[in-house]
Design brief:
The structure holds 3 protein chains of 3 kinds. Chain A is an alpha+beta fold. Chain A has helices spanning 42-50, 92-102, 107-121, 136-149, 166-183, 194-200, 218-223, 228-233, and strands spanning 4-13, 16-26, 31-35, 57-62, 65-66, 77-80, 154-158, 186-190, 203-208, 211-216, 240-250, 253-258, 262-267, 278-283, 289-290, 297-306, 310-317, 322-328, 338-342, 348-351. The radius of gyration of chain B is 24 Å and the shape is globular. The chains are: A alpha+beta, B mainly alpha, C mainly alpha. Chains in contact: A-B, A-C, B-C.
C-alpha cells in the first residue's frame, strides 16, 4: 500500500489551465474524496493521478516513487469508471481477468484472485455472464472487482455511483464502506454527491475552479469551513449568508449587528476587523432556532416546504434578506406568519470581503 | 526533471497512430498517388501503351491537340449536361422519395426495399437491362409507348443522337436516385420531431413547413449528397460504355480518355484528357466547398 | 382525406413499379428461349432455363463469378485489415495533420478512376499482374480502402472513451486496444462496411475491363458487358439477362437482409454536416 503525493500539479488543455497548482498528500490507507461543482477539475485531478492525463507541470508520486512518466498500468493504481467501462464482449470473469492476462500472470493465480474478489463482492454466480446480462448494481460490482483483482496500491473511483438509482446508491455506498474496511487500501473517490463524500471519506478535498479550497475531515469542513465557498458547498440544505456589519471586538469574538438591530457575538480566530467593516455571516439552516420569548430576529415566512421528517421555511428578514430555516417535520407554521428567530454565536461563521473565514 | 508538456503516454499513442497509418498510407500512395503522378507525367510525353518505357517529352502538345479536338469538347459538354441534369433530377426525386419514406405511412417498408433494388444492381447490369428494354426492335419501351399510342413507330433509342443522352440520363436517374433518397432520409430522421409538432400546433401549412424548416435544416446533408453524386457523375464511364459504346453523342470525358489510353494506345494524349478531368473534378469540389459551403467531416 | 390517401398510395405504387420493373423484365426475358425473345409478352408462354444453362456451358460464366468473388473478397479483407488500424489512429488519437489526412483519404475515393489508369497499367505490367486477379485487387484498393477507412473512422469515434481508458489502466497498449477491445465490438460495423466495399468491388467495371484480356480472366460485369453470341452482330440478350439475374439476385438478397446496416454504413460520415 502507498500514499499519493501531488506537488504543484498543473494541467492545461491548450491555453486553458484547468488545474492551478495543487499540493496534496494522501496518506497510506486513507480514503479521500474529491468534491466540487462540475467543472471544478476533480475528475481531471483523478485522471492525472491515474495517468490518463499528463500534468503540464508538477510532480506526482505514488508510494514515494515519481510516476509522472509511467503509463497507467505501471502506477500501481486501479480505476472504477462512472460508466463502469466493462468490456461488453467479455464475461464478468474475463473482464476482471483481462489486466492480469495482459501482464502474463499464470492462469492459476488469475483464477484464484478473480474468485477471491468475486467472493468479496458476492458476484460468484455472475462470473459467466456478459455485462449486458447484468443489472446496474451487478455491473458496478464487476467493475470494482476488476479493480480489486489488480491488487493496486491505490484505488481510484470516478463518480462510481452516479449511474445508479437512489436506492441502489445507498446500498452500494455501504458496500464501498465495507470494502474500505476490508481492503485497507488507499482510495481516492471523486463525487459530486456530498453525502457520499461525508459518509465514506476520512478526508474530503473541496475543489473549485482548479484549486483546492480546503482539505479536511468531514466534520472539520462542516464545522470550520475555511472560506465562504466551502461553507456553502458542504451541508444540505446550503448555509445561509447574511450581510452584516462588524461592530468590533468583544472578548475573543466579533460583535455584528443583524438586521433589525439584533447583536450577535461570533467567535473568530484572527484579528477582529475594525467597526463598520461589512462582513458576511454564515449560518446553517439547522442552526437557526425559534426564539422562546419576544426577543430575537424578526422574520416573515415566505414559503413552507414540508419534507415529512423536517420542514424548510423560506423567510425574509426585516431588511428583505432571505433566510432558510430548518424546523421539525410537524412544526405548525404557514406562509405569512411572523417568527422570532434565534441565532447562536458558536454555530455561526464570519467571512470577510475576500470570502475567507475570520 | 519537471514534467514535459506531453510525455510518455501521449507520445506513445501518437507514435502508434502513425505506425497504424503507415500501411494504409503506403498502399494509397502506391495505388493512387504514384499512378496519378505518372498520368500527369505521361500527359507531357508521346508515350504509347507499347512504349511505356521509351518516350519523349512533347511539352504541352497533347493539351494543344486536345483543346482543338471537337470530339473532346463534345465529351466535356456531354459530361456536364449528364451531370447537371441527372443530379438535378435525382435530387428532386430523391427528396420526394425520402419525404414519403419519412412519413409514417403504411407501405414504407416495401417502398424502401424496392428503392434499394436499383442501387444494389451493378451499373453494367442495369445498363444492359435498360439497353434491352430500349431495344429498337424488340424493346418493351417501344412496345408500351406504341401500345399507348404515344409514338407511331419504334424509336432507336440508344442509336439516335438526339435520344441517346436522355436515355443514359434516365438510366442513371433510375440507378442513383435511391442513394440520394437514402442519404436525405438519414438527414430527415435526425430532425427533432417536436419541431414539427410545434409547427402543426401553430397551424403552419405543410408546404411552408417544408420550405422554412425542413429544407434549411437538411441543407448541409443535402449539399454533401449532391457533391458526392456530382463528383460521381463527372467521372461516369460504365453507363455510356455499355449502353452506347464509344458513340460520340454520349461519350463522357472518362470514355474519351480511356478510348485514347487503351483502344488507341495513345497514353500521352489519353493522360492529358484524364488530367483535365481531374482538374474539372477538383474545380467542382472547390466550387462546392466555397460557394455551397459544404462541410465534409467524419463526425467530430 | 380518403382521396389523398389513394393518391398517395398510387404514387408509392408507381415508384415501386418504376424501381422493380426493369429487373422483373430481365427475369422474364431470361426465361425466354429462342425466338420467344423477340415477342413482347408479360410472361413467356414456354418458360425455359436454356439461357441459364447456356451461360455456364457456352460462356465461362462460372469462372467469371469465381474471379469476381476472389477479387472482391481479397480486396475487402485487405482493406478492412488496413482500415481498422488506420481508423483507430484517425478516430481516436489527436495529432497534427489528422484533418488533412482524412481529407486526402476522402479525396482519393473521389478520384476519377481513369486518371490513374495509365499509371496503374504501368504498375500492373511491372508487377506481372496483367490479366490476373492480382491486378484487380491492387486497383480496387483505390476505392475500397478510402471508403473503409472513412466509415470505420466514424464508427471508431463512437466507441466510448472510458472503455479505452479502462484498457489502458489494465495495461493494454494501442495494438491490444484495437485488436482485443475494439475489434470484437465492431462486428456489425465491419460487416456493413465490408459488404458495401464488396458490392463496390463486385460491380467495378473500368479496371476489370482494362486489366483483363481473356474471357476466363474477366469478372462478372465485364463478362456481362462483353457477352457475345454466335455472330458478332447478334447479342445474346437472353443469356445476358440470365447472367444479370444470376449475379444480381444474391446482391439484392444481401442488401435487403442488411437494409438497416447498409443505410447506416452509407450515411456514416456523409450526412453529419
Amino acid at each position: 500500500m502507498a500514499g499519493v503525493t501531488l506537488r504543484g500539479v498543473r494541467k492545461s488543455f491548450g491555453r486553458i489551465e484547468v488545474i492551478h497548482g495543487v499540493d496534496l498528500e494522501v496518506a497510506d490507507g486513507e480514503f479521500v474524496a474529491f468534491v466540487g461543482p462540475s467543472g471544478c477539475g476533480k475528475s481531471t485531478l483523478l485522471r492525472l493521478i491515474a495517468g490518463l492525463e499528463e500534468p503540464s507541470a508538477g510532480d506526482l508520486s505514488i508510494g514515494g516513487q515519481r510516476v509522472n512518466d509511467r503509463p497507467p498500468a505501471a502506477r500501481g493504481i486501479a480505476m472504477v469508471f462512472q460508466s463502469y467501462a466493462l468490456y461488453p464482449h467479455m464475461t464478468a470473469y474475463d473482464n476482471m481477468a483481462f489486466g492480469l492476462t495482459l501482464s502474463r500472470t499464470d492462469k492459476g493465480t488469475i483464477a484464484e484472485r478473480v474468485r477471491a474478489a468475486a467472493r468479496l463482492l458476492q458476484i460468484e454466480d455472475l462470473l459467466d455472464r456478459k455485462p449486458r446480462d447484468l443489472s446496474g448494481g451487478q455491473r458496478q460490482r464487476v467493475a470494482i472487482g476488476r479493480a480489486i483483482v489488480r491488487e493496486p496500491q491505490v484505488f481510484l473511483f470516478d463518480e462510481p455511483l452516479s449511474n445508479l438509482d437512489a436506492g441502489l446508491r445507498v446500498q452500494m455506498r455501504l458496500e464501498i464502506a465495507k470494502l474500505k474496511a476490508d481492503l485497507r487500501a488507499t482510495m481516492i473517490y471523486v463525487t459530486h454527491d456530498q453525502v457520499e463524500a461525508m459518509t465514506l471519506a476520512d478526508r474530503i478535498v473541496v475543489l473549485n475552479a482548479g484549486r483546492v479550497e480546503q482539505a479536511g475531515t468531514p466534520l472539520e469542513l462542516y464545522h470550520r469551513p475555511r472560506n465562504r465557498f466551502v461553507a456553502g458547498f458542504i451541508g444540505s440544505p446550503a448555509m445561509n449568508f447574511l450581510d452584516v456589519v462588524s461592530e468590533g471586538r468583544a472578548d475573543g469574538s466579533v460583535r455584528v449587528w443583524l438586521p433589525g438591530g439584533v447583536p450577535l457575538d461570533v467567535a473568530v480566530d484572527g484579528a477582529a476587523p475594525p467597526a463598520g467593516t461589512p462582513l458576511t455571516l454564515g449560518v446553517r439552516p439547522e442552526h437557526v432556532g425559534l426564539a422562546d420569548g419576544g426577543a430575537g430576529l424578526l422574520a416573515t415566512i415566505l414559503a413552507v416546504e414540508r419534507l415529512g421528517g423536517e420542514t424548510h421555511c423560506h423567510a425574509a428578514l426585516e431588511d428583505g434578506q432571505r433566510l432558510l430555516v430548518r424546523l421539525d417535520g410537524d412544526r405548525p407554521v404557514a406562509a405569512g406568519e411572523r417568527l422570532r428567530l434565534n441565532l447562536r454565536g458558536e454555530t455561526a461563521h464570519l467571512f470577510g470581503a475576500d470570502g475567507q473565514r475570520l | 526533471m519537471s514534467g514535459l508538456p506531453h510525455s510518455s503516454l501521449e507520445r506513445q499513442r501518437r507514435r502508434a497512430a502513425w505506425l497504424f497509418l503507415l500501411p494504409m498510407l503506403v498502399v494509397l500512395a502506391g495505388v493512387a498517388g504514384w499512378p496519378l503522378f505518372r498520368t500527369v507525367f505521361f500527359s507531357f510525353t508521346d508515350a504509347t501503351l507499347a512504349t511505356l518505357d521509351g518516350f519523349q517529352g512533347v511539352g504541352l502538345d497533347n493539351y494543344l491537340w486536345l483543346v482543338r479536338d471537337p470530339v473532346w469538347w463534345r465529351a466535356v459538354w456531354n459530361t456536364l449536361v449528364f451531370t447537371v441534369v441527372s443530379v438535378g433530377i435525382e435530387t428532386a426525386l430523391g427528396l420526394g422519395i425520402a419525404l414519403i419514406l419519412n412519413a409514417h405511412l403504411p407501405g414504407r417498408g416495401l417502398l424502401r426495399a424496392a428503392v434499394l433494388i436499383p442501387w444494389a444492381i451493378p451499373t453494367v447490369v442495369s445498363a444492359q437491362m435498360w439497353g434491352w428494354m430500349f431495344h429498337d426492335l424488340y424493346g418493351v419501351v417501344n412496345a408500351i409507348l406504341m401500345g399507348l399510342g404515344l409514338i407511331a413507330e419504334p424509336r432507336a433509342w440508344t442509336a439516335d443522337p438526339d435520344l441517346a443522352l436522355p436515355v443514359v440520363i434516365a438510366v442513371d436517374v433510375w440507378k442513383s436516385t435511391p442513394f440520394m433518397a437514402l442519404l436525405i432520409l438519414a438527414a430527415l430522421q435526425m430532425l427533432p420531431r417536436d419541431l414539427y409538432e410545434a409547427a402543426r400546433v401553430d397551424g403552419v401549412h405543410p408546404v411552408k413547413v417544408f420550405v422554412r424548416i425542413t429544407l434549411p435544416l437538411i441543407r448541409p446533408a443535402l449539399m454533401v449528397a449532391v457533391l458526392f453524386r456530382t463528383l460521381d457523375a463527372l467521372r461516369v464511364f460504365d453507363l455510356m460504355y455499355v449502353l452506347t459504346g464509344n458513340s460520340r453523342s454520349t461519350m463522357s470525358m472518362s470514355v474519351y480518355a480511356r478510348q485514347y489510353l487503351i483502344d488507341f494506345q495513345d497514353v500521352g494524349y489519353g493522360s492529358a484528357a484524364a488530367t483535365l478531368l481531374v482538374l474539372v473534378l477538383a474545380a467542382a469540389t472547390v466550387l462546392a466547398v466555397t460557394l455551397g459551403r459544404v462541410r465534409v467531416d467524419a463526425g467530430r | 382525406m380518403g382521396l389523398r390517401r389513394i393518391a398517395f398510395a398510387l404514387v408509392v405504387l408507381g415508384i415501386v413499379v418504376w424501381a422493380v420493373f426493369p429487373f422483373a423484365w430481365a427475369i422474364v426475358t431470361s426465361l425466354k428461349a429462342g425466338s420467344a425473345l423477340f415477342t413482347v409478352e408479360a410472361w413467356p408462354s414456354q418458360p425455359s432455363l436454356a439461357n441459364y444453362a447456356a451461360i455456364f456451358k457456352e460462356q465461362p460464366f462460372g469462372r467469371n463469378i469465381l474471379n469476381s468473388l476472389m477479387a472482391a473478397s481479397a480486396v475487402v479483407a485487405l482493406s478492412l485489415g488496413l482500415a481498422v488500424l488506420a481508423a483507430y489512429a484517425l478516430g481516436r488519437v489527436r495529432f497534427r495533420g489528422r484533418g488533412l489526412l482524412l481529407f486526402v483519404v476522402l479525396g482519393v475515393s473521389m478520384f476519377p478512376q481513369v486518371a490513374v489508369l495509365s499509371g496503374l497499367f504501368e504498375l500492373v505490367r511491372w508487377l506481372g499482374l496483367y490479366n490476373r486477379i492480382g491486378s484487380l485487387v491492387l486497383s480496387y484498393l483505390i476505392f475500397t480502402l478510402p471508403f473503409t477507412v472513412w466509415v470505420l473512422t466514424t464508427f471508431m469515434r463512437e466507441l466510448p472513451k472510458e472503455l479505452e481508458e479502462a484498457a489502458m489502466v489494465d495495461g493494454a497498449g494501442p495494438f491490444v486496444i484495437v485488436t482485443r477491445v475494439f475489434l470484437p465490438l465492431m462486428g456489425p460495423a465491419l460487416a456493413a462496411t465490408g459488404l458495401l466495399a464488396f458490392i463496390a468491388a463486385w460491380n467495378e467495371f473500368l479496371f476489370a475491363l482494362t486489366f483483363t484480356l481473356t474471357d476466363d480472366a474477366r469478372t462478372v460485369p465485364v463478362a456481362i458487358a462483353l457477352m457475345s453470341g454466335a455472330s458478332q452482330y447478334e447479342l445474346p440478350w437472353g443469356q445476358i439477362m440470365a447472367a444479370s439475374v444470376v449475379v444480381t439476385v444474391p446482391l439484392i438478397g444481401l442488401v435487403l437482409l442488411f437494409q438497416r446496416r447498409i443505410v447506416s454504413g452509407l450515411t456514416a460520415g456523409a450526412v453529419k454536416g
